[in-house]
Automatic annotation (TrEMBL):
<keyword id="KW-0597">Phosphoprotein</keyword>
<keyword id="KW-0238">DNA-binding</keyword>
<keyword id="KW-0804">Transcription</keyword>
<dbReference type="Pfam" id="PF00072">
    <property type="entry name" value="Response_reg"/>
</dbReference>
<dbReference type="InterPro" id="IPR011006">
    <property type="entry name" value="CheY-like_superfamily"/>
</dbReference>
<keyword id="KW-0805">Transcription regulation</keyword>
<feature type="domain" description="Response regulatory">
    <location>
        <begin position="3"/>
        <end position="122"/>
    </location>
</feature>
<dbReference type="GO" id="GO:0003677">
    <property type="term" value="F:DNA binding"/>
</dbReference>
<dbReference type="InterPro" id="IPR016032">
    <property type="entry name" value="Sig_transdc_resp-reg_C-effctor"/>
</dbReference>
<dbReference type="InterPro" id="IPR000792">
    <property type="entry name" value="Tscrpt_reg_LuxR_C"/>
</dbReference>
<feature type="modified residue" description="4-aspartylphosphate">
    <location>
        <position position="54"/>
    </location>
</feature>
<dbReference type="InterPro" id="IPR039420">
    <property type="entry name" value="WalR-like"/>
</dbReference>
<dbReference type="Pfam" id="PF00196">
    <property type="entry name" value="GerE"/>
</dbReference>
<feature type="domain" description="HTH luxR-type">
    <location>
        <begin position="150"/>
        <end position="215"/>
    </location>
</feature>
<dbReference type="InterPro" id="IPR001789">
    <property type="entry name" value="Sig_transdc_resp-reg_receiver"/>
</dbReference>
<dbReference type="InterPro" id="IPR058245">
    <property type="entry name" value="NreC/VraR/RcsB-like_REC"/>
</dbReference>
<protein>
    <submittedName>
        <fullName>DNA-binding response regulator</fullName>
    </submittedName>
</protein>
Length: 221
């Protein structure tokens, strides 16, 4: 079962999302929070697999809550944070990805998209669906970020792993990468796993951020 915590300051949103997810055969809604501080407290108490995190909340916003939950957590450890926002190009979305969130979803997305997003994030992937991600990456890449030297860890990647990382950063799925490189999808999954392990990243969302911030991939390539 995928354990889910819902953090949103609107009761109707919490209840609506809760009812939808609770109706799924593989999901269990373990709790809810009305602000970011409560979300942090409840997440530490309930140990959910996925936290649906609204961005704009009182006391502590979703960005601050995401940082508190994920700072210092080992790579690959729960919870996974799925950011909920009303604004598809909200500045906070980019900061949330930098803070370690596994992706974001618009609040007006169809119910099926929410269910799918929770499963994707719980499975260790990032929510980088083509319908949103291409534009997200373009917008993110166009924004000036802190100048950073390439991490030494990048040197540990093989040429093929570096190539796969570039394709991840361009929003390609495992299936698309496999087709482009003419290899089996399982081979791509193996490369992705090694990339995340070598770079101490939680998931593909962090890989995208790292690729752009280190200059491995540039906007417009």
């Amino acid at each position: 079962m995928i354990k889910v915590l819902i953090a949103d300051d609107q009761a109707m949103v919490r209840e609506g999302f809760g009812a939808l997810l609770a109706a799924q055969h593989d999901m269990l809604v373990v709790g809810a929070a009305a602000d970011g501080a409560q979300a942090v407290t409840e997440a530490r108490r309930l140990d959910p697999d996925v936290v649906l995190m609204d961005i704009r909340m009182p006391v502590l916003d979703g960005l601050g809550a995401t940082r508190q939950l994920l700072d210092g957590r080992p790579a690959g450890s729960p919870p996974r944070v799925l950011v909920l926002t009303t604004f598809d190009l909200d500045d906070y979305v980019y900061e949330a990805l930098r803070a370690g969130a596994s992706g974001f979803l618009l609040k007006d997305a169809p119910a099926a998209d929410l269910v799918h997003a929770v499963r994707v994030v719980a499975g260790g992937e990032a929510l980088l669906a083509p319908s949103v991600t291409r534009r997200l990456i373009e917008e993110f890449a166009a924004r000036p970020g802190p100048a950073r030297p390439r991490p030494t860890a990048l040197a540990a990647l093989t040429p093929r792993e570096t190539e796969v990382l570039r394709l991840i950063a361009r929003g390609r799925s495992n299936q698309e990468i496999a087709a482009e490189l003419v290899v089996a999808e399982q081979t791509v999954k193996t490369h992705v796993g090694r990339i995340l392990a070598k770079l101490a990243l939680r998931d593909r969302a962090q890989a995208v951020v790292l690729a752009y911030e280190t200059g491995l991939v540039a906007a417009g390539e």
